[in-house]
Amino acid sequence: MTRTVLISGASVAGPVLAYWLHRAGDAVTVVEKASAPRSGGYPIDVRGTALDVLGRMGLLPRLREAHIDLRRITFLQGDGSRVAALHPHAISGGVEGRDLEVRRGDLTEALHEAVRDDVEFLFDDSIATLDQHDHGVDVTFHSGAARTFDVVVAADGTHSRTRELVFGPEEQFHRYLGYCFGIFTMRNTFGLSHETVMWNAPGKAAALYATGNDDEVHAFLNFALPQPPFDAFGDLAAQRDLVTSVFADAGWEIPGMLTALRGAEDLFFDAVSQIRMPHWSSGRVAVVGDAAYAPSFLTGQGTSLALVGAYMLAGGLTGQDHAEGFRRYEHSTREFVTLNQDLVGKGGATLFPTTAQDLERRNERLRGLSALPPAQGRDAHSALTLPEFAMTKQRLRYLAES
Ligand SMILES: Cc1cc2nc3c(=O)[nH]c(=O)nc-3n(C[C@H](O)[C@H](O)[C@H](O)COP(=O)(O)OP(=O)(O)OC[C@H]3O[C@@H](n4cnc5c(N)ncnc54)[C@H](O)[C@@H]3O)c2cc1C
After folding, report:
1. Domain map of the chain by residue range?
2. 400: CA distance to ligand 1 center in Å?
3. Segment among 152-166, 276-290, 336-350 with least mean pLDDT
4. Pocket lining: 99 vs ligand 1, CB cutoff 6 Å
């Protein structure tokens, strides 16, 4: 009998899992609380093994056209003077000509289009309750509908509600990394193009990120905070106040950024954190992507882990019952995930020192780096060789012939 699968979340991990499970013969439903795939958004990187997932879906040519091609990152001291100007890959460990950097919306749109005709999408809805038993999972939706599925997968991000319903409160899995950040768009009055400028003071960073020659830049404000600001989560006014008070005395372009923050409608604020879970499944329910193993933007690997994890979960389930499928998924993927989560503390992650001494040491390191991009990426990015599963073979034959 055809297996029925419900996936919660239609961003990166959800559509990729849906795409491959459909090819494996499952009947897939994706529920997404937003009214459509989210467009726009900050730029994200795809590197190493994750590029092969997009390649096997036939999406690389389209996404290469959407590549942002960031050419320079310039670091400034607290007084606005220049520390160093580098190729961004010198920091991120990316590989020129191979790695992808695209607007998040361009990726999610491409993924959605690749699967929307083959599986059922329920937008503007979400899971209200889950009840597992021997023969399936009874699900009620906030819309009032009630259905039973053989398997449910949480692909609904770092603060996954589905994970909470099955595995319990987020605190058990949340690893706070000591920073908070806000990101929003503002007018590009700086003449920046295909580049980032980042200002640092101890425990504070402000960046302007111009993805192209457009009129907007992504403004990014990151700061150290010993405890997560629980009161500010879910409270936009409190988030604005917190960021404004932290950066109140800062120079450079920050006063203008704070003015823009006041009027920004797209502020995204969160703690910098990871999700680390001892198990990625419980009965008939599994987790994937940020819901299972968000690595934080400090690693730049969240999207890549979501792509690879979704492919490996679908592959694990192919031809197997859910228990064996989930076991295979975790067995084959955990080491790759851990290696990438452990990148925190290396490379890009050391960009935000909290003391004057550490900042000076970082600046010395940056001055010593070659302005040229490295020839090779970090080992962790490619630490898993993507297996071929039954679901992949037909697809690879088609791509080879077309
Ligand atoms: C500022 C910033 C910069 C980043 N930079 C990078 C980078 O350079 N490189 C990189 O690889 N990654 C980066 N990331 C991380 C990257 O965005 C995520 O790792 C990636 O999007 C994870 O995909 P996902 O599908 O697992 O989850 P998400 O993208 O978080 O998607 C979750 C989806 O579930 C939906 N949802 C949420 N709750 C519910 C619910 N209850 N019911 C139904 N649907 C729900 C959401 O609307 C969303 O569509 C960055 C993240 C941030 C915030």
Report:
1. 4-173+276-401, 174-273
2. 32
3. 336-350
4. no
Other beta carbons within 10 angstroms of residue 323's beta carbon come to: 11
For residue 379 the two structure tokens come to 């080992």
Closest CA to 127 of 7, 5, 294, 4: 7
CA of 63 to the centre of ligand 1 (A): 18
Read off the pLDDT of residues 298-356 as tens digits, 9 standing for 90 and up.
998 999 999 999 999 999 999 999 999 999 999 999 999 999 999 987 655 577 899 99
Binding site membership of 20 for ligand 1 (Cβ less than 6 Å)? no
- Contact 10 CB / ligand 1 (< 6 Å): yes
Q: Which backbone phi and psi does 47 adopt, to 5 degrees? A: -135, 165
**H or E segment at 160?**
none
* Six-digit token string for 232: 């500010």
The finding on whether 159 has its CB within 6 A of some atom of ligand 1 is no
Task: State which fold the 4-173+276-401 domain adopts.
Answer: FAD/NAD(P)-binding domain (3.50.50)
Instruction: Identify which of 44, 53, 180, 308 to mutate to test ligand 1's pocket (most ligand atoms within 8 A of the CB).
Output: 44
| Cα atoms found within 13 Å of the Cα of residue 334, Cβ hemisphere only | 12
CATH topology assigned to domain 174-273? D-Amino Acid Oxidase; Chain A, domain 2 (3.30.9)
Ligand 1 centroid – CA 308 distance (Å): 14
Q: Is 106 in the pocket of ligand 1 (CB under 6 A)?
A: no
- Which ligand 1 atom sits closest to the C-alpha of 92? 8
Res 346: pLDDT: 61
Whether 149 and 139 have beta carbons less than 8 Å apart is answered as yes
Q: Does 45 contact ligand 1 (Cβ within 6 A)?
A: yes
Look over the chain and give the mean of its residue pLDDT values, rounded to a whole number: 93
